[in-house]
Amino acid sequence: DTGSGQRRRSTRMDARQQRLEDGPTLLLYHQTSEENASKILRTGRMLRGENGLAGGGIYFAETARETHGKAQHKGVILQAQVQLGNVRQVQDQLPGATYQGLRDKGFDSVR
């Protein structure tokens, strides 16, 4: 039934929100195009990309300089407080990783 599906989704979202609040928060950097930066600053929202080293996501760096090697769109470097939640630690790429696959395993970010 639709009601039970919505309750499960709400419960998963509540659990994720709790992980984000309980996990580490870091000051990080994100580089994007002027157009995308303008949208982010106007709406306060970032949208997941479709690909990257750990699948589609929003990629941040620990320094502004490090964004140059990660950014698919270049132009503006944004600074943000990022709630990492439950972090999956990796040494290298995660072939075949997807946002949903990581979420299903209880991870909110990759580092």
Overall pLDDT score = 87
Strands in their spatial order, largest beta sheet: 1-2
- Shape descriptor: globular
Low-confidence regions: none
Oligomerization: single chain
Strand elements, count = 4
Q: Please, how many helices? A: 4
Largest sheet: 2 strands, antiparallel
Q: Spell the H/E element sequence.
A: HEHHEEHE
Rg: 15 Å
**Span of the ends, CA to CA:** 38 Å
Q: Indicate the structural class.
A: alpha+beta
**Can you give the helix content as a percent range?**
25-40%
**Residue share in β-strands:** 15-25%
Features:
111 residues, alpha+beta, two-stranded antiparallel sheet, two-stranded parallel ribbon, globular
Question: Can you give a write-up of this model?
Answer:
The chain is of the alpha+beta class and 111 residues long. It has four helices and four strands; from the N terminus they run H-E-H-H-E-E-H-E. The chain has helices at residues 2-22, 34-43, 67-70, 99-104, and strands spanning 25-32, 76-83, 87-88, 109-110. A two-stranded antiparallel ribbon has the order 1-2.
